[in-house]
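Working notes for the structural subgroup meeting. M.R. asked for a predicted model of this chain before we commit to crystallization trials. I am recording the input and output together here so anyone reviewing the notebook later can reproduce the run.

Input as submitted:
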Amino acid sequence: MKNMLKFTLLLSAFLVIGCTNDSESDLLIVEETDNTDNSGDDDNSDATVTFSANIEPIIASNCLGCHSSPPRNGAPFSLVTYAQVSSRSSGVLNTVSKQTGEPSAMPPSGRIPQASINLIDVWIQEGLAE
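Returned structure, recorded in token form:
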């Protein structure tokens, strides 16, 4: 009986610790640098944040569980296509920027890494490149 209680307590501790993505490193705002190549080459395709290369994978791994087509689990809209995501880009940034537990914070499973949030912000600031 004692061993079962110890096991249950240990399992509960692991579940509580593992059920959040929030960490101090996620809370730090990492500055994005766009001057990694100072060679004067204006055709640096790596510098531009695009939906297909950078944002779509973030949306696919964090949002499509609910915001698929058709939406599931009470999600009010789809975030499958470029048009759907770009038309709601500010709202997406706002909701993923919230801390876990805040009203309207997304995804409900826990906050995405700050680096991904920064990438979405840069994508919006750069004009929502497809």
